[in-house]
Amino acid sequence: MATDRIRLGASYRKLYTATALSNIGDGMAGIAYPWLATAITRNPLLIALVAAAQRLPWLVFTLPAGVITDRVDRRRAMVAMDTLRCAFTLLIAFAVLGQQDTLPAPDALDQVVGTRTGLYLLLVLATLLLGSAEVLRDNCGQTFMPSIVAPEHLERANGRMWSIESVANTFIGPPLGSLLLLSAFSLPFFVDAGSFFAAAALVALIPGTFRAVRPEGEVDAAPTNWRAELKEGVRWLWRHPLLRSMAIILGLMNLATNLSGAMFVLFSQDVLGVTPLTFTIMGFGFAVGAIIGGYVAPWLSRTLGSGTCLALTLGSGAVMQALVGLSSSWPAVAVIVAVGTLLGSTWNVITVSLRQTIIPAHLLGRVNSVYRFFAWGSIPIGAAMGGLVVLISRQFVSNEMSLRMVWFVDAAIHAVLFFVVRRTLTTERLEAARAEGIAQHALLEGA
User: Fold this and answer.
1) Which residue has the higher pLDDT, 83 or 370?
2) pTM over the 0.85 mark
3) What is the pLDDT of residues 265-312, one digit of tens each?
4) 2-211+227-446: which CATH number, 3.30.420.40, 3.40.1160.10, 1.10.3720.10, 1.20.1250.20?
5) Looking at CB atoms within 10 Å, which of 191, 220, 286, 292 has the fewest?
6) In the chain, what are the domain boundaries?
C-alpha cells in the first residue's frame, strides 16, 4: 500500500488519463466556442455574456454543489456530470451542424439577427448548463483527490494534474480544434462530446466507494437539513483566517483576469490580427508556461517559500497584463503570457494542495465549495465588466484602445493585490497550516 501511494496509484492514473482526455476536448472547445460567438456577433457585451453564462453557475450553484458533494459518492457524481456535459455538447454540435454553411457571418454586425438569434440563445443556454455540470464535477474532483493520494504527495499529484490539463487544454486541443474548425464548424464540438464520454468511462472504472465519512464513522447517517450543512461549511471557512483571505484574494484575481480574458478573442482578432491558426500557435506559449509551472511548482514552493511564490504570481501578473495591453504582436503576447502562466500554475498547485490538506474530510466538499464561491463566483462578474469597459470606452476612444483598456484595468487590480498578499499570505502562515493539517490527518488515520 505504501509503495502504491508513493507512486500515486492506479486510481490516480485513471483520473489523470480521464482529465487528459476531457481537457483535449476542452482545448478544442476553447477555440471553437469563442470563434462561434464572434461568428454570430461582434458586439463585445454579447460575446462577454457567453463567457459570463459559462461561469455564472460558480456564483449561484457552488454552495449547493458543496452540500451535494458531501452527501453523495463523489466518483459517481463525476461520472454523471461528465455524461451530462457530453449530452449538452452534442446539443451544440448538432445545432452548429445545421447552420455551419452560414458561419462565419459575411458581415460584422453587432446585433444578432435572423437564424443567428436562435443559435446564439442556444449557445448561452448550453454554456450555462455546461458550467453547472462543471461546478459539481470539479468540486467532486478536488475533494476526490485526497481519497486516492496521501497528503504528503498532494502537491506532486496536483502538479502533474495541472500540467496534463495544460498540455491537453492548450498544446494538443487547440491545434486539433483549429484544424477541425477549418474543416467544419461543428467538428470540434462533436469531438469534445466524445472526450467527456471517455472521461466518464475511465472514472467509472476507479474501484471503491467515495462518500464523505463523518467523524463518528456513520457513513449512512441521515443528513441534516441543507441550510444547516451549508452553514457548517461557511462557518468553518470564515473562521479560518488564512483560507478566508486566500478565497477573497483569488476572487479578486479571477475578476481581474476575466475582465480582460472575456475580450481576449476580440483583442486577438482586432488588435493582434490573428486567425484561428495563429491564435492556436499563440496558445502554445500559454501551454509551455503552464506545463513547466505545474512540474516546478513544488520545487519553487520549497526553494522560494510558498508565500513568496503566491506574491510572485500577483506581482508578475500586474507586469504581464500591462505588457499585453501595450503589445501589438501576437508572438510577443505568446511569450509574455507563457511566463505569466508558468507562475500562475504555482498558485493553483500550492493553494489547492493546501486546502486538500487542512480541510477536514467530512467538510471538504462544503468548505471547498464556499471557497470557490468567493474565488470563482467573481468570474462572470469580471467577464461582464470586461464587455462593459469596452462598450463604454468605445464612446471616447478608438476600438483598439478600448480593447487595450481592459488589460490596464486588470494590471492595476493585480498590482494592488500584490501588496496585500505580501503581508497576508506569508510562507510561515501557509506552512504552519499545512503541518497542522498533516498532523490531524495522521491522527485520524491512527484512530
Assistant:
1) 83
2) no
3) 889 989 998 877 787 777 676 667 777 776 787 788 888 888 898 998
4) 1.20.1250.20
5) 220
6) 2-211+227-446
> In terms of residues, how long is the chain?
447
